[in-house]
Design a protein that fits this description.
The protein is mostly helical. It is built from 22 helices and six strands. The chain has a two-stranded antiparallel sheet with strand order 1-2. The chain has a two-stranded antiparallel sheet with strand order 3-4. Strands 5-6 form a two-stranded antiparallel ribbon. Helix 16 packs parallel to helix 19. The longest helix has 38 residues. It is globular and about 115 Å long. The protein starts with 8 loop residues before the first helix and ends in a 9-residue tail after the last helix. The C terminus is likely disordered.
Length: 505
């Protein structure tokens, strides 16, 4: 018979209190789960019914307050990195060479670094590039320029169709396109699924033999950005819409700078004739998506939203921050999600790449400016079109590679290897143009070096290419004072007539 075992009293008390603590903690956990579930149901319970293409962001905010409140933070322009940011920045003042490179094109008048989606309507209205139209049929820009500026555009595209929307002048739709970039640009109002609202992207995929409807959710988290952050041109030879500036992405042969150049050469397209050199110039827009796709992050499956719209938590909710901004403004929530280095190390990694690219950029711009000025000297010396043909073609290619490399937002970090390659090609093409021009000058008895004008400031560069900036600014100020209030009045009347969404019980 085994001896009877006894347990010390303190052990029983320890078991008792341990059980009480475990039960208490389990109760807290259950309560938290119930509370978070209730919070989730409350937050995401739709309060208003949204029409298929509702352009007013504040109404979407009734149903998705956290996302909307984070989006409103894009109005903050306080962030500035070493080379960019959301703060207002005059790119022409920082890089006066660009004034000469774009001589004969609207960008030589005014080019402010983009402040963000919140200011899309304000900035396109105020920039000198859109001129000072006095009526709906007045120039200089086509209506197509509105395409990426507002959720009013999907509404109008649905009502009118792409060809009809693209038709006409920019001023004709000024009272229709008034809501800044927002929810309806990227989301289905019923399911909140990401969707493509600009037909140009769908058409570009089709031209490459691809079906965009088969894109994964992760791919869509970049493709909604690719609706606008891409290279494009206005095609007036589209058989479905002759003479209409039809928005087109030059992707038929692929999405690289080289394939786009091949496309433009094949179709004989030129954006403008350079006012100094007479070269047929291609103006790259902002090929952010294409350049990003050549970089290491895209190759590892990272999407635009992963870094520019990271996930955040608030209470029991995990949601995508819609404060679309530079990842450098929130390194702990972006870069450090995947990388374990310090914030300082990660920031310096970015700057190191950008500084090296900037060095190449400056060399390319200097060589290009010299090529344009020397080409003008050759024309003045009596050069013929046949003598200048090859030189101008090299200038065209040099400027295309330079512009493609620098026009994108963040290209120097998205794909520093590819951007460095493009800038290297630009320098090479520009130097080849200069060599040919030197031979042409020599054949006309001009052997001395062509002097460069003083273009050390934006103002001096604009004077060199013949711009009357005082007159341009005066015309724009009058437009802002007299025309914009009328646009806003008409827009208010139209929006007041919208069907009022009923609040759900």
């Amino acid at each position: 018979m085994s001896p009877k075992t006894t347990r010390a009293p303190w052990i029983n008390w320890a078991l008792f209190f341990g059980t009480v603590i475990v039960v208490f903690l389990l109760g807290l956990l259950a309560s938290s789960i119930v509370e978070r579930r209730a919070e989730s149901e409350y937050v995401y319970k739709p309060r208003v019914e949204l029409s298929e293409y509702e352009p007013r962001n504040d109404l979407w905010g009734e149903n998705f307050p956290r996302e909307y409140q984070s989006y409103l933070q894009t109005a903050d322009t306080g962030f500035r990195s070493e080379f960019n940011g959301s703060a207002p920045s005059d790119a022409l003042a920082e890089h006066p060479n660009m004034v000469v490179l774009w001589a004969g094109y609207a960008f030589s008048k005014d080019y402010m670094a983009p402040r963000g989606h919140f200011y899309a309507i304000t900035d396109i209205r105020n920039t000198l590039r859109t001129g000072a139209p006095k009526g709906p049929d007045d120039g200089p820009q086509p209506n197509t320029c509105w395409t990426c500026k507002s959720p009013d555009v999907p509404r109008l595209l649905e009502q009118m169709g792409p060809a009809e929307f693209y038709k006409g002048k920019w001023a004709a739709k000024g009272h229709e396109v008034v809501n800044y970039i927002g929810c309806a640009d990227c989301h289905d109002p019923k399911t909140m699924d990401l969707r493509i609202t600009r037909p140009a992207l769908v058409e570009a995929f089709k031209a490459m033999g691809k079906d965009i409807s088969k894109a994964s959710h992760q791919e869509m988290r970049s493709l909604v950005c690719a609706q606008c952050h891409v290279e494009y041109y206005f095609d007036k030879k589209n058989p479905a819409a002759p003479e209409v500036p039809y928005l087109t992405f030059p992707w038929k042969f692929g999405m690289t700078a080289d394939s786009s150049l091949k496309y433009y050469e094949t179709y004989g397209f030129t954006d403008f004739t350079h006012a100094v050199s007479k070269a047929p110039i291609l103006k790259a827009q902002h090929p952010d998506y294409e350049v990003f796709m050549t970089g290491i992050h895209a190759q590892r499956g990272v999407a635009c939203a992963d870094c520019h719209m990271p996930y955040v938590r608030e209470g029991g909710q995990k949601f995508t921050s819609h404060r679309i901004t530079s990842p450098l403004s929130n390194i702990s929530g972006t870069c450090q999600v995947s990388h374990r280095e310090s914030e300082e190390a990660l920031r310096n990694n970015v700057y190191e790449r950008q500084r090296k690219v900037m060095e190449l950029r400056n060399r390319a711009e200097t060589a290009l400016v010299r090529a344009h000025v020397e080409a003008r000297a050759a024309w003045e010396a009596g050069a013929t079109e046949e003598e200048m043909k090859n030189s101008l073609q090299h200038i065209r290619h040099a400027q295309w590679y330079w512009d493609y490399a620098v026009a994108g937002h963040g290209n120097a970090f998205h794909s520093p290897v590819e951007v460095s390659r493009l800038l290297g090609l630009s320098v090479s093409e520009a130097n080849e143009a200069r060599l040919l021009i030197a031979r042409t000058l020599a054949s006309h008895g001009k052997n001395e070096a062509v002097p460069l004008p003083d273009i050390s400031t934006k103002e001096k560069a604009q004077a060199f290419i013949g711009l009357d900036m005082a007159a341009l600014r005066a015309e724009k100020s009058e437009f802002i004072r007299t025309v914009l209030p009328e646009w806003d009045r008409k827009a208010s009347e139209r929006e007041a007539g919208y069907k009022i969404q009923k609040e759900k019980p």
